[in-house]
Design goal:
The protein has about 300 residues and is an all-alpha fold. Helices cover about 75% and strands about 0% of the residues.
């Protein structure tokens, strides 16, 4: 197990290096001058040229990229072009909000999606099964922004139960978490149903029932654990998508996370913030995927890492 973890950590370095190179090139071939954006349209060419020299934007791309990688290795991601603050301070300010939103969405998706999938699998083709799959289909098909608007109109405007926007206590997290979890919940429900239907046909499940074990014990102790591997795989992927794809949710609910920060940085041509944010998200997703791989061995003891 330890050797496997070490190999995965070694593999992280070329992945992150490739991601940083891709983002660096994309930001530099995109039309627009960050110095011009920072100084405004009426700034003189001399002022723009001087600011470009101060920021090192006149150096060759290879030199700029090498300088950026060397700084990243020392946890120095440079200073924001827009706010003139260290990028790591911007990330430290916004990443906890995005992580909180993704964790809340994951909790809601698991707490609702997995039981729905189990219920559908234990009662196939019943009314409960059909209704559950209809709900799952709506969750996958409905745009996230439309889900957010419906939730705000229902629970914030008409019922006045929850706030419409901002980050505060638990009441501020509920609607954004439900919104960001809507697609993941539907996928988890369908994946759990499919995996459970396969497992419930296995010989050991029929043997457990023949021994007189109760339905709840058979389903949750024997069947569900063996059906969790594809569910955990989807869950790890969806958590990564929640981290990187919560831009719409954060915008609708005015949630001060990294999604909004990246959009604002792209509009301002603040390449250093974009590069730092993407690097942090990529590192987090790689770590999550590695943890998911390690979790397989605990879910199913038959899996061995060589």
């Amino acid at each position: 197990m330890l050797q496997y973890v070490i190999r995965r950590l070694v593999m992280v370095l070329p992945v992150l290096l490739g991601i940083t190179a891709m983002v660096f090139l994309l930001m530099h071939i995109t039309p627009g001058d960050p110095a011009r954006v920072a100084l405004g349209e009426h700034a003189t060419e001399e002022a723009v040229a001087q600011l470009r020299r101060e920021w090192g934007l006149d150096d060759p791309l290879a030199v700029q990229y090498a300088r950026y990688v060397w700084g990243a290795l020392r946890a120095d991601l440079g200073r924001s072009f827009t706010h003139n603050r260290p990028v790591r301070e911007e990330l430290a300010r916004t990443f906890p909000a995005t992580l909180q939103l993704a964790a809340g969405g994951t909790f809601f998706a698991v707490a609702v999606g997995v039981p729905i999938g189990v219920l559908s699998a234990t009662r196939p083709y019943s009314l409960a099964d059909r209704l559950s799959m209809v709900v799952a289909l709506l969750g996958v098909s409905m745009p996230v922004f439309w889900t957010a608007i419906l939730l705000i109109m229902t629970f914030s405007i008409h019922l006045r139960w929850l706030p419409t926007s901002g980050r505060g206590g638990l009441d501020h997290l509920i609607l954004p978490a439900i919104t960001v979890a809507s697609v993941s919940l539907a996928l988890l429900a369908r994946m759990t149903r499919s995996a459970m239907l396969d497992v419930l046909q296995e010989d050991y499940v029929r043997t457990a029932r023949a021994k007189g074990l109760g339905q709840r014990l058979v389903v949750y102790r024997h069947a569900l654990r063996n059906a969790l591997i594809p569910v955990v795989t989807v869950l790890g992927q969806q958590f990564g998508l929640m981290l990187g794809g919560a831009v719409v949710t954060e915008t609708v609910f005015a949630w001060p996370g990294m999604g909004r920060l990246i959009v604002q940085a792209i509009l301002a041509r603040d390449a250093r913030v974009v590069q730092g944010a993407v690097l942090l998200l990529a590192l987090t997703i790689v770590v999550i995927n590695s943890l998911v791989d390690v979790a397989y061995g605990y879910i199913d003891p038959r899996i061995r890492y060589e």
